[in-house]
Amino acid sequence: VQLQASGGGWVQAGGSLRLSCTASGNTGSIKFVGWFRRTPGKEREFVAAATWTGGITTYANSVKGRFAISRDTNGNPLYLQMNSLKPSDTAIYYCAARRSGLVPTSRENEYDIWGQGTLVTVSS
What is the predicted pLDDT for the residue at 75? Predict the structure, then answer.
């Protein structure tokens, strides 16, 4: 399985962006997808996670109510809709996949497949 994150860019504070996480290969093995982000000088942090079907989701408190995970009607990709963006949301965003477990998790060491990041810049 390979993952590709895309959709990053520059936006003014209060704006919106939609990130995509596209999976290829044996996508039937994916059970959960997570979004994480890293700001220079900081550790990577959890943003959101969902079942691969998008039916069960969980969010970091910092993005709850502003970000939402959804899935394309064709099943792939899985999206991260980001609304009401703040300068503090500026980061490289990564999607990751997990092929085991029972519920979406915020623990990055439980994800075994990672895509490359996509940069999101929010200006004030």
Answer: 76
